[in-house]
Every structure is written in structure tokens, then in C-alpha cells.
Specification:
This protein is of the alpha/beta class. The protein has six helices and nine strands. A hairpin with a 2-residue loop joins strand 8 (203-206) and strand 9. Bound molecules: 5-O-phosphono-beta-D-ribofuranosylamine.
């Protein structure tokens, strides 16, 4: 099938929420350009004022703002502050990329089926763990395969409908560190792939399943 890209059709506005390093954010920005995906990162929000992701955004000339959650009395008021900024930038799709805050049901419902997250395991296995702990648990479990998952965010942690997964073998000599490096390489492929499908309007959520059209 031939796809015609019409430069007069506005791109999907993307907002990235991140708390740390920002390698998935950077991989996404580079892939959007390289692969001519009809999406554009319009804003990066970090809840951590000195997070490296904000420096990456600066270098890539992408609008960015720190909204420290500690400055707000409640989760809801913190989220309201984020929604104001996201609206200001015409964001339609939110990508969580190492965002270390749980979103309230109010925020999740506001952007229903418009929030993606990436997790460094093959969900639903190893849900609820974070960072290097995921890879440690994978090795201890003896499983032969691991990978990453991009999923829509719903009200339960790491449990939303799955959009893209990439799989790699666990080697006998893997450590949590070596596994995290190899899984991250897959994450940098998986996230742009999921965002491309979203921007091409090809994702339909039916219950727990995502149908790719
Ligand atoms: C990634 O491993 C991602 O799967 C998890 O947090 C990490 C973020 O890494 N949710 P980075 O900040 O994108 O480099």
C-alpha cells in the first residue's frame, strides 16, 4: 500500500514525560525525523529539575520544562500543572519515558488510550519492578528470553494494552547490567515503532488487546 504524506496535515503533537537519563526520548526524536513519522515532540516535562533529559532536550532544541512534583500539595494539582503545559503545546499523545511518578486515574482517564509507556521486560512478566531490578529478577527467574514492551497506560501499573514488544535471549553470562544495555537497544527501536503506529492511526484498543490495522 502506498502512503501519501501530506505536509499540510498537522503532525501528532507528542509530549514526553521523563524523570532521568532520557535516552528513549532522544531515540524517539531522532527516529521521528529519520523515518518521516507524522509526529513531533512538542514538549518534554520532567518532574526532576536537574534531570539529564532536560539537557538532552535543550541540545535537540525541543521545548522543555521542569515541573517538580514536590512543589505541589497533591498528585492532582501536580498533574493539573502538567495538563496546562501539555494543552498549551497541543499535545495529543503522551509518551512516558522513564517517568518515575504514578499517574492518577483522573490524568489517565483524561488522556484515555493516548498515553504510552515503555517497560524493560516482556509484560505482563516482571511488572511493577523498575530499572536494574527488572533485569536482576529476569536473571534470577531463569527465563530464557526477555525484552521490552510499549503499552497504553491504564489505571493499573504496567498492565495496559500491549502495542509493541521486542524479544532478546538471556545469555548464560548475562548480568543485570549487560542485560539492561541490550534491552535498551531494543527499547530505542520499539518506542518509535509504537509511536509510528499511533501517528498513522492504526491502533484500536479492544479490551486488553490492541488491534493493529
Ligand atoms: C527505560 O529502561 C525504560 O524502559 C524505563 O525507564 C528507563 C528509562 O531510560 N521505563 P531512559 O531515561 O529513556 O534512558
Amino acid at each position: 500500500m502506498t502512503r501519501y504524506y501530506n505536509s499540510s496535515v498537522p503532525k501528532v503533537g507528542i509530549g514526553v514525560l521523563a524523570s532521568g537519563r532520557g535516552s528513549n526520548f532522544e531515540a524517539l526524536v531522532r527516529a521521528l525525523k529519520r523515518d518521516a513519522i507524522d509526529g513531533e515532540v512538542k514538549l518534554v516535562i520532567s518532574n526532576v529539575e536537574d534531570a539529564p533529559v532536560l539537557r538532552r532536550a535543550e541540545a535537540l532544541e525541543i521545548p522543555h520544562v521542569a515541573i517538580p512534583h514536590r512543589d505541589y500539595k497533591s498528585r492532582e494539582s501536580f498533574e493539573r500543572a502538567m495538563i496546562i503545559e501539555l494543552n498549551r503545546c497541543d499535545v495529543r499523545l503522551i509518551c512516558l519515558a522513564g517517568f518515575m511518578r504514578i499517574l492518577s486515574p483522573v490524568f489517565v482517564r483524561h488522556y484515555e488510550n493516548h498515553i504510552l509507556n515503555i517497560h524493560p521486560s516482556l509484560l505482563p512478566a516482571f511488572a511493577g519492578l523498575q530499572g536494574i531490578e527488572v533485569h536482576r529478577a529476569v536473571i534470577e527467574s531463569g527465563t530464557r528470553f526477555t525484552g521490552c514492551t510499549v503499552h497504553f497506560v491504564n489505571e493499573a501499573v504496567d498492565a495496559g494494552p500491549i502495542v509493541v514488544q521486542r524479544v532478546i535471549p538471556v545469555r548464560q553470562d548475562d548480568t543485570p547490567g549487560s542485560l539492561s544495555v541490550r534491552v535498551l537497544i531494543e527499547e530505542h527501536q520499539a518506542y518509535p515503532e509504537a509511536v509510528r503506529l499511533f501517528c498513522e492511526n492504526r491502533l484500536t484498543v479492544e479490551g486488553k488487546r490492541v488491534i493493529v490495522g
